[in-house]
Amino acid sequence: MTGAERHFDGGGTDNGLADGLERLWTPHRMTYISGEDRPEGGYEKPTGCPFCLAPGLPPEQSLVVARGTHVFAVLNLYPYNPGHLLVCPYRHVADYTDLDAEETGELAVFTQTAMRVVRKVSNAHGFNLGMNQGGVAGAGIAAHLHQHVVPRWGGDANFMPVIGRTKVLPQVLGDTRDLFARAWPS
Predict the structure, then answer these.
(1) DSSP string, the chain
(2) Count of CB atoms situated within 10 Å of the CB of 80
(3) CB-based contact 121:185 (threshold 8 Å)
């Protein structure tokens, strides 16, 4: 029996009827969902925070695209769309109001540059920009502020994410990082 031939509604009432959906499995996302890659002490302290650790790692391991004085741009390890970038301050702060003027200004400039680079490299039609402030607002790593820069294209909300509940990424993250890093102005 294939996934499309089985029906499971999550409530334990498997009636054995086909639901007509083909299942696309993305087991790599289970690490994120289950929290397997979370450090033992959590993200609250800089020693366990991936945004604090990333700038010190080699680029191919960290997925850092560009570095500024106060902030850096890094590819999202669990992207909503291809080319999903995060702009993060180096300083481990949780709230936007905790940024100083220099950090706030450079975060804005990096966000603009990220949009220009993504448009140049992948011809994005638009963007979703945002910060989730706090766990209740959807922040997966609430302890370290990060600005999402999510490229959008006409038709990118097709059947795959809507029905299939999965995203198709056309390129390995390391290759995307290399393209963006080369296109990022010095």
Answers:
(1) --TTT----SSS-------SPPP---GGGHHHHHTTTS-TT-SSSGGG-HHHHGGGS-HHHH-EEEE-SSEEEEE-SS-SSTT-EEEEESS----GGGS-HHHHHHHHHHHHHHHHHHHHHH--SEEEEE---SGGGT-TTTTS--EEEEEE-TT-SSHHHHTS-----SS-HHHHHHHHHHHS--
(2) 15
(3) no
Distance CA 44, CA 99 (A): 17
- Report the predicted TM-score, pTM, of the whole model to 2 decimal places: 0.72
pLDDT along the chain (186 residues), means of 10: 42 52 56 58 65 91 96 92 95 96 98 98 95 87 94 75 59 88 93
Residues known to be catalytic: 146
